[in-house]
Structure formats: C-alpha cells, structure tokens
What does this fold into?
Amino acid sequence: MGVSAREAEVLAALAEHLTNAEISARLFISVRTVESHVSSLLRKFQVGDRRALVAVAPTVRPASASAKGSGAPSAVAARLPSPLTPFVGRVVERAALAEALVAHRLVTAVGPGGVGKTRLALSVAADVIDEFADGAWFVDLVPVTDPAMIAPAIAGALGLGEYQGRSAEDTVLGWLAP
It folds into this structure.
C-alpha cells in the first residue's frame, strides 16, 4: 500500500493514540491537515475507523523511505520546525554547540533576546539529529508565562498524554530518564 511519508507519520502517531490536535502539534501541521490524512488513510486501507488504522500501522512503511537520505521527511525530523530561510554563518558556535550535545545530556544556550539562540539550536539539532536514536524535539517556551506550565508544554511537545494521579513533571521525567 503506497502511503506518503507524512501519512506514515500520521499513522504512527495514531498508533500512539494521539488526538488530532496532538498529532498537529507534533508534526507542525494544522488539525485540518491531520483530518485530511486520516480520511485518506481510511480510504486507502478500506477501514472504517481509527482503531482499524492502528491495527495496520505496524505493517506500513512510506513508499519513499526505502533508503536513508531519500529526501522523505522522517517522524524525527518533523519534530523540529522547518526554517523559512537558510541558516548562514556562526560556524564556530554551531560546532561548539554540536560538540556540547555529544558530550552532555542537557545543553542550554543563553544570551539576550533576539540574538538567534533558537535559530542556532534548531540548526544544530537538524545537523546532529541522526546521532541520537530518539531524535530531537522542539518545545516553544515563549508563550509559557507560568513556570507551572513548563512541564505540560514539554509533555505536549513529546506527545505524552495525561495520566491520572501523575503530574506532568513526573510523566516527562519518567519518559526522559532512560
């Protein structure tokens, strides 16, 4: 069955029992686009609901993902927003940040607002994403004004659901610990 790389990503997210909104946030696409992909997958596999799609998810491979470097976006790459323009310069900073990522589990870029920390971090993450089995995620903390909402923002970016009797902090720490 021929499915696009994006349809395969949506199908994999469905297998994780994510909602359309959660899939939208993870893949940086609109909820309407997720709905369109789900409808397309339902037609392609001639099944009636999401549960049936989840059953076929483990057997599906995107048609264009036969070889690494095929140009097809991966689920890991989709976790990072695509830059609107190419990243130019800052070779020394990029190399230092990439080296720090290999040496340490947690790396923080600091500096005044507007100097390009996020852009630098996203560029380096895209460069080194294949070095990490679990890939990389982007968590936009700019709209987070309440410190109590940091863990839920991270949990949302990771696609972690809510668990009864477990805080967002515990959920994130439990997922990141291994």
